[in-house]
Specification:
The complex is a heterodimer of chains A (about 350) and B (about 80). Chain A has helices spanning about 5-20, 25-30, 35-45, 45-55, 70, 100-120, 125-130, 180-200, 240-245, 245-250, 260, 290-295, 330-335, and strands at about 65, 85, 95-100, 130-135, 140-150, 155-165, 175-180, 205-215, 220-225, 270-275, 290, 300-305, 315-325, 345. Chain A folds into two domains: about 5-135, ATP-grasp fold, A domain (Dna Ligase, domain 1); about 140-345, 2-Layer Sandwich (D-amino Acid Aminotransferase, Chain A, domain 1). Chain A is built from 13 helices and 14 strands. In chain A, the strands form three sheets. An eight-stranded antiparallel β-sheet of chain A has the order 9-8-5-6-7-10-13-12. Chain B has one domain (about 1-80). With about 80 residues, chain B is mainly α. A two-stranded parallel sheet of chain B has the order 1-2. Chain B is built from four helices and two strands, in the order βαααβα. Chain B has helices at about 10-20, 30-35, 45-55, 65-80, and strands at about 1-5, 60. The longest helix of chain B is centred in the C-terminal third of the chain and has 18 residues, at about 65-80. The chains are: A alpha+beta (about 350), B mainly alpha (about 80). Chains A and B meet through helix 1, helix 2, helix 3 and helix 10 of A and strand 1, helix 1, helix 3, strand 2 and helix 4 of B.
């Protein structure tokens, strides 16, 4: 068995073989190591560090970091349920589990340990054993996601705000995100204040971020902040289709949305990102066709349709749509639809 | 400046880079995307210079496993040095 130093060397050597292939963040770590960027990224990607850093904003927020080896014997009776367990550093792409009961915890620990077994040949044992997990309180409230960047002076600029809609209390899907004049107007100042406070603590600048929060009354609590990008899979583009805001240009050119002007003719309209995700129990290889045409008939004004290859991606595609308030039912309909009627096996 | 990677780049994103002649790292994904002029893409040295001058970088994707390996190394380094 190696000592820590040898293990780091060993791991570093293996990591380099793997890393040199295709990773952007690794490129930063390698080539921009002397800049502040890797440090900014680390603060957001290390979830325990992030909670530590913003503790001043949330002095009563419960979280605790645990090693993998501590999970099985951890006394969850000391923790108020529900709570979340997830990788803290995210060294491995393990899942996020919501724990409502002792049984949930037992199942989650088994699942995590199983996942660790599946990847055990990829990494030295010592490294796997250093994997950290974070247990944190379940954040109640309505979920919002927003794209923003910090400018060269560290001032945050919000380029879009999305509300994450769910079909029911049990629904955890990513099917539908919406934005509208009323959402922007209700939250832009509140989220701006949140970003200003967070930015002052973290001392960050020149960085795009995608933020997920839950809002409960006056409380805004971050679920996570993703650095270096806006909403994933280029769904940030909804800002362009809804408001004419090209988020990439706004970041690079340091432009700030003139919301009053942008929103003046947006009354009574909702803009949505519809994520057409595959039902988990259907094998992608068994799917012959997805009837996009019929899906689109459910929308009065599709703005953009992105079809994906279900054998390569976990989704059939995306629809960006504009919906008048009086026709909001079309969004509720797609939110509740399991999409099976559009899948040909 | 931009670094693009799997899994997906939209037409808007691609066209924005092309239209504005934004600096783009010449990596495997960008080359294979087929839309970008190879002569206009930057190598690592050019990108580092560009970043040092403007400090503005956008990624379409983050490969968490890769990054987290880096993070883990840093943590281990800290642990080792303690």
């Amino acid at each position: 068995m190696c000592d820590t130093q040898q293990m780091v060397k060993e791991f570093e050597a293996k990591e380099l073989l793997y890393l040199n292939s295709e990773n952007s963040i690794e490129w930063i770590a390698t080539n921009l190591a002397n800049t502040s960027l890797p440090q900014y990224i680390n603060v957001f990607k290390n979830k325990a560090l992030f909670r530590d850093m913003i503790r001043k904003m949330y002095p009563d927020f419960y979280y605790q970091q645990l090693d993998l080896s501590e999970l099985r014997d951890f006394d969850i009776n000391s923790v108020k349920k529900p709570f979340i367990v997830k990788p803290a550093v995210g060294f491995l792409s393990l899942g996020v589990y919501t724990i409502y009961s002792n049984d949930d915890w037992a199942n989650a620990v088994i699942a995590i340990e199983k996942e660790m077994v599946e990847v055990k040949n990829m990494f030295p044992k010592e490294v796997l054993n250093t994997s950290k997990f974070i247990i944190e309180e379940y954040i109640e409230g309505t979920e919002y996601a927003f794209d923003a960047y910090y400018d060269s002076e560290g001032n945050p600029v919000i380029v879009n705000i999305l509300k994450h809609l769910f079909a029911s209390a049990e629904d955890v899907s990513d099917r539908l995100y919406i934005t509208s004049k009323s959402i922007i107007n209700e939250f832009k100042d509140k989220f701006q204040a949140f970003l200003e406070e967070m930015g002052q603590i973290l001392q960050i600048r020149n960085i795009p971020i995608h933020v997920e929060v839950r809002v409960n009354g006056d409380s805004i609590v971050p679920i996570e902040v993703n650095p270096m990008r806006f909403a994933g899979l280029c769904t940030t583009d909804i800002a362009y289709y809804a408001y004419g805001i090209n988020p990439y240009e706004y970041f690079i050119e340091r432009k700030k949305p003139d919301w009053e002007n942008i929103l003046k003719d947006k009354e009574g309209k909702t803009y949505s990102i519809v994520i057409l995700d595959k039902p988990k129990d259907i094998d992608a290889n068994s799917i012959k066709e997805f009837d996009f045409e019929s899906v689109l008939k459910g929308f009065e004004k599709p703005l953009e349709v992105r079809q994906m290859d279900i054998k390569r991606y976990p989704v059939f595609g995306f629809v960006f749509a504009e919906t008048r308030d009086e026709n909001f039912a079309e969004l509720e309909s797609i939110l509740a639809n399991d999409l099976r009627e559009f899948i040909k096996i | 400046m931009f670094i693009i990677d799997k899994p997906y780049v939209s037409d808007l994103f691609r066209d924005t880079i092309i239209k504005n002649s934004y600096k783009l790292l010449k990596n495997e994904f960008a080359i294979n995307a087929g839309h970008f002029n190879g002569n206009l893409m930057c190598d690592t040295q050019q990108m580092v210079k560009e970043f040092e001058a403007k400090e503005l970088l956008y990624l379409n994707s983050e490969n968490s496993i890769m990054f987290l390996i880096c993070s883990e190394i840093r943590l281990l380094r800290i642990a080792t040095s303690c």
